[in-house]
Design brief:
The termini are far apart. The protein has about 325 residues and is an alpha/beta fold. The chain folds into two domains: about 210 residues, DHBP synthase, CATH 3.90.870.10; about 90 residues, 3-Layer(aba) Sandwich (Rossmann fold), CATH 3.40.50. The strands form two sheets. Strands 1, 2, 3, 4, 5, 6, 7, 8, 9 and 10 form a ten-stranded mixed sheet that branches. Strands 11-14-12-13 form a four-stranded parallel sheet, with helices on both faces. Helix 1 crosses helix 5. The protein has ten helices and 14 strands. Threonylcarbamoyladenylate binds next to strand 5, strand 6 and strand 10. Keywords: ATP-binding, Cytoplasm, Nucleotide-binding, Nucleotidyltransferase, Transferase, tRNA processing.
Length: about 325
Amino acid sequence: MTARTTDIEKAAGVLSAGGLVALPTETVYGLGANAEDSAAVSRIFQAKGRPPSHPLIVHIGSAEQLDDWVQDVPRPARLLAEHFWPGPLTLVLRRGPRVPLEATGGLETVAVRVPDHPVALALLAAFGGGVTAPSANRFGQVSPTTADHVRAELGDAVDFVLDGGSCEVGVESTIVDVTSEIPSILRPGGVTREDLEAVLGFPLAVPSTSRVRVPGQHPSHYAPRARVALVEPEKVVTEAELAQELGHQVGVFLPPALADAPVKAHAVVAVPGSVAAYARGLYGFLRELDRLGCDLIIASLPVEEGLGLAIANRLRRAAGPRPTV
Ligand code: TXA
Ligand code: MG
C-alpha cells in the first residue's frame, strides 16, 4: 500500500465533487465515481468509451451496508456476502432506490461488492458512500493491475489516481447472480466455483452462454493490441515458430511444462506454474507483449478448474473476434 492518508482524503474529496478516481482493488484497478451522482456515473462511461447500457459494480465498505443498496437479499446471498467479503466476489441483487439507473444500465438489478484492499477500504470509509467502478481501462481492452497501467491508458480522463501497488489477485471478481433461487456464475473470477459451492452446500446453476448480458460476455474483451490465438499446449512452440517464419512478431505464452523449451519467437512469457501467480500476472503479460511490439500472441488454455476457469475465460475473450472498425 503506497497511498497516504492525504491521498485518501483528496480522493474522497474528488468523489464528493463529482470527479473520477482510479482506485486499487485486490482484483484490478477500478475507475470510480460517487454511485449516487448520476452525472459522475455518466462520466465513467465517457472516459472508458463504454456503451451506457453496460452496468457497473457498486463498491461498498462492508457487508453490513448491503441492505442500504439492494432489496430482497435471499439467504444464499447473505451467506456468500458474510463468507467472502471483503473479497473478489460480486453479487447481483435487486436494485435499491439509492442506486441510479445510470449505474445499472437501466436494469432493476445491481452488482455490489466489498473490495479486499486496504486503500480501497480506506477510501470507502473516508468517502462514506458507495463507489461505482468498472475496471479502469478503455472498453474492451486489457484491465489494469498497476497505477501506471491506468495512467498510460486513461491519462487525463481521470481526475486522481490512487496508487495502491500491484493487484494481488490480478483477474476481476467472480460475478454471481443471486436473484434466482439457484445462484449462477455470470463471470468466473477471483473466488472459485469450488469455494462458492462449498459454502452454499449445493451446485451453482450453469447460465446459458447465448445471452449477452454483461460486457465481459461479448466475444472480444480483455483484448491486447496483438491478436491472440489459442492452440493446444503441445502445439504452442511449433505454431509460434511457424507464425514467426511467416513474418509475424510472435509473443508466446510458454506453458509451465515447456518452461525450458527453446522457441524462436519475438518474445516469450514463461507462464507461472502456480495458477494464482498466473492470474496475478496475466494482464501484465498481455500488456508487456504489446509493448514489445508483438502482433500475434500464441497461448494455450490452463486446466479449467479453480482460478484456471477465470484465466481461460479471459484468454478466450482476448482471442475472440474483434469488432471491424
Ligand atoms: O473485480 C472487479 O469486479 C473489478 C473491480 C474494479 O472491482 N470491476 C470490474 O468491473 O470488473 P467491470 O465494469 O469491468 O465489470 C463489471 C461486470 C460487467 O460485466 C457488468 O456487465 C456486470 O459486472 N454487471 C454489473 N451489473 C450487473 C447486473 N445488474 N447484472 C448482471 N451483470 C452486471
Ligand atoms: Mg472490465
